[in-house]
Structure prediction request, 196 residues.
Amino acid sequence: MQLTNRIRAIDIAIWLEGHKTLVICDTHLGYEQSMQQRGILLPQTQLQQTIDRLRWILKQVSPKRIVLNGDIKHEFGSVLDQEWNDCFKLIDFLKDNCDELLFIKGNHDPLIEPIAKKKNVPVIKNLQLGNILITHGDELPSEHTEVVIIGHEHPAITLEDGVKYEKYKCFLTRKIKVKGKASLLIAQPSFHLLKP
Prediction:
């Protein structure tokens, strides 16, 4: 699905053709262990489902660069065992499928640096590619750019008929003003597969 003439949605990822860059956001790895610590038992299937979905996406495109746009892990104040293990496995998978892997720090990532450092993955605040800014979305951009891609918001739409409802991930686009000039905002759905 074309979002603009040079930005395409592939499943719930964003493909920047001119930059050979694939953007995914909000994986929230470790969510199952975090819920288990709160007394909610969830099977640990998120990592495998994430990799399976990425395999399908990577059959459609061959990125030189993959950007994980924030909230890579779920817990704020610690690094859970599952977060270490799942992040390492995801990093290895992604590095096998691109030349460059980057982490953009999200609000759930105050402790992502130890994971990234062990696997030599740069952690950055945002990424400017020509007139496209990729930033997590928990802070407003400080400079004008034509297109701003964010995660963070987890856009979804709910359809209901009065008896039941279904919630679906979606992309949200709208015009915004940055430094008094018009920009196109693209809010990308989360890659967190356990919640819409």
Q: What stands out?
A: The chain has a mean pLDDT of 94.
